[in-house]
Amino acid sequence: MALFFALHTHIGDPAAGWEFFAQNAPALAAAMEAGQMPAKAITTYNPAAYGRPEYVFCLWEAANAEDVMTVLQESGLADIVTTDLMQVDAIDWKELAEAAQ
Predict the structure, then answer these.
(1) Using N-to-C axis directions, what is the helix angle for 14-33 and 65-75, rounded to 10°?
(2) Are 73 and 61 in contact (CB under 8 A)?
(3) Pick from 54, 59, 63, 91: most CB atoms within 10 A?
(4) With 90 as the cut, is the pLDDT of residue 15 above it?
(5) CA atoms in the 13 A half-sphere facing the CB of 74
(6) Alpha-carbon torsion 78, 53, 15, 12, what sign?
(7) Within 1-101, where are the H helices?
């Protein structure tokens, strides 16, 4: 599986987007965890409390970018955010520190 980093930008009012997310995310998370979706969101980073409500960042695991976009479409999240998706490699800083010792 590959890692993908998504920059999600709200379409319209961020508060309405968060309301949709709060109502639908638990079921989506359960479906991803059960392997019922082709991609899995690993972590979501929300900077709204720190003055940046227009963005949400997510780390995804999937075989390809199209699988992430399928989950966003099927879940309805694509209706509340646009997505700039990029494949990434993870650098484990703990491993780097251990290698330096």
Answers:
(1) 120
(2) no
(3) 59
(4) no
(5) 14
(6) negative
(7) 14-33, 65-75, 93-100
Query: Which tokens hold the place of 15?
Result: 């508060």
Tokens of 58: 């997510």
- Separation of alpha carbons 87 and 64, rounded Å: 8
Distance (Å, whole) CA 101 – CA 22: 44
63 confidence band (pLDDT: 50, 70, 90): very high
Tell me the pLDDT band of 101, cut-offs 50, 70 and 90: confident
Which CA distances in Å does 87 have to 14, 44, 47, 54, 58? 26, 16, 21, 22, 12
